[in-house]
Amino acid sequence: YLVGVGRADCTGPVAQVPLMGYANPDQVGGGLLSRLYSRAFIVADPEDSGRVVFVSADIGMVSQRVRLEVLKKLQSKYGELYRQDNVVLSGTHTHSGPGGYFQYTLFWITSKGLIKPALSSIVNGIVKSIDIAHENMKRGRLFINRGTVENSQINRSPFSYLENPASERSRYSSNTDKEMVVLKMVDEDGHELGLISWFAVHPVSMNNSNHLVNSDNVGYASYLFEQEKNKGMLPGEGSFVAAFASSNLGDVSPNTRGPFCANTGESCDNPQSSCPVGGAAMCMAKGPGNDMFESTRIIGQNIYLKAKELYEKASQEVTGALSSAHQWVNMSDVSVELNATHTVKTCKPALGHSFAAGTIDGVGAFNFTQGSVEGDPFWDQIRDQLLGEPSNETKACHKPKPILFSTGEMTWPHPWHPDIVDVQIVAIGSLAILAVPGEFTTMSGRRLREAVKSEFDSHGTPGMNVVIAGLCNVYTHYITTYEEYQVQRYEAASTIYGPHTLSAYIQLFRGLAKAIALNSTQDLPRGPEPPLFNVTNLTLLPSLGADSAPAGKTFGDVLEEVRPEYQEGEVAEVTFVGANPRNSAENATEHNFLMVERYSNISSSWRPVLNDASWDTRFYWSKGSGGQSRVTIAWHIPAGTEPGAYRLRYFGHYKRRVPLSRPVTVPFQGSSSAFRIT
């Protein structure tokens, strides 16, 4: 094959923008723990036109808006080389990245509309990572390996899982998929290029009290792998690219100590995830660490160590033709043949009451509980008044789900949920990647993989390695099994196309697999094209006014100085007169907010040792009154740090008023005093 890899920044605005994932409007960005990246991998056939692209981006999920804009840019740059059928865009599902990059109304509610700078940085970052991979294509080889990851996940809806038939459950040793699949890439001289790992776990080690943008546990795994392979480079630099991509993580939590009542400390591992005092709002899962930062590192390190082992031992070579199959489908109207006599249908999208309950990884508002198969007259009344009552047809179609939001019947100012959804498979020789538009639960994913594998088997392509890539192309929430759907915990309430959603996807993906196996992908109907709504920027974010500094001070001045001396394990901290970090995101695509520098006696100069992509540094922004703000830079000094003289630097942009014209953006910097590490 010809193989190319690329990585590009897609962080976007780190302040004031709501973070995407927990749907908690109070969880807005207030700084940066680690940068977000898009990682792109291109595999092409040197003999013919076969070519596939897989992108994993450190974002909550790929939205339809992001995908359509990326495809538009690729087409204007490369013509017909990169298309909707051979480009897979997958989100890692971090819950600590900026939101606001959606065109469907439901997602505007918690992310304050459509936020152009957030959307642009994701679109541009994805395209740039593909550009870099495209420019770096060389002859190479691929190897696949798989193995088991321990102590890194629990099923967060075990009572739903138990609804699946006992005969089916007995075929599996666990109620989560512990298998990791690793694809290793080297050039023809054996030089290492990169890897993709697929593993099912929610990146929610950072909880909904976090305000620092970061890529969570899987992002930390990428960081560890890339730091190891790109020796001597700053984080985010170097040619080796390691993607830790999402899979069927719907009911899988990294918070391995399980759910406890925050007030009393007792377990709340019950079908309603509810506490005796305080109800569901008190039931929260705990990670393995003492705080969310430590839990993120523990889970991330586990995943990294297993991937490293599988990568080093990978010997099964992937060879064979490249192919891709794609369709757009109206998911609100699919007829599914369950058997010779039974046909069922999917529904217009709707969310159930338990959607509002959230999960043990991030509880919802107003004390809704999971497992509601009855509506609540109080909330139903409010909904009917504000949003309109669901039609009888939709109510009947979704049974036993009590509908909270009938999003498929809400069209103001735009539709609230997608109808047109991508289904897609790309095959690299014996590896088939199923690009699924949401979060399949453990058992849903098992059924889908098995169905696709048997489809390949029965059409003369036995022994395919089938992996699920999650959160691809368009976001449609969750996909549970029919049996899990009946008990209506959070994942089931969020299965928006009704009880037969999974059966519909299995039917559709079988069709794609058959087309690949029979080499007839050109005969697949394209399906109805998704809409691109004419909305460019519609936001409730505070507008960016002019920044100001306190009297007698200027931007970048130190307000609280570092101590003269630190030891490893301590935190060096400095606070500056700051400015709104959104100025930097709108001004420069790849703005670095901070540097840790060490004084080199050899060259008599300051040398950078860490930037803001490092997991040891934290950048905090807080807004004061009258356009003033403060920035604190903290460095958690790790064990093994070389003794010597260090300083912390801050780089920002402030907006200055100009009479009769638009404000101008001015770059500035600040530095702490030097301090010693002893």
UniProtKB/TrEMBL annotation:
Primary enzyme class: hydrolase
Reactions catalysed according to its record: an N-acylsphing-4-enine + H2O = sphing-4-enine + a fatty acid
Textual note on the cofactor: Binds 1 zinc ion per subunit.
Cofactor requirements of the protein: Zn(2+)
Entry superkingdom: Eukaryota
The keyword Metal-binding is annotated on this UniProt entry: yes
Catalytic-site annotation from UniProt: S253 (nucleophile)
Binding site for Zn(2+): H93, H202, E439, Y478
Ranges for domain Neutral/alkaline non-lysosomal ceramidase C-terminal: 509-677
GO MF terms, alphabetically ordered: metal ion binding; N-acylsphingosine amidohydrolase activity
Record has Coiled coil as a keyword: no
Keywords assigned: Hydrolase, Lipid metabolism, Metal-binding, Sphingolipid metabolism, Zinc
GO biological-process terms attached to the record: ceramide catabolic process; long-chain fatty acid biosynthetic process; sphingosine biosynthetic process
One cellular component term from this protein's GO annotations in UniProt: extracellular region
Family under the similarity heading: Belongs to the neutral ceramidase family.
Domain Neutral/alkaline non-lysosomal ceramidase N-terminal: 1-507
Protein name: Neutral ceramidase
Gene3D superfamilies reported for this sequence: Neutral/alkaline non-lysosomal ceramidase, C-terminal domain
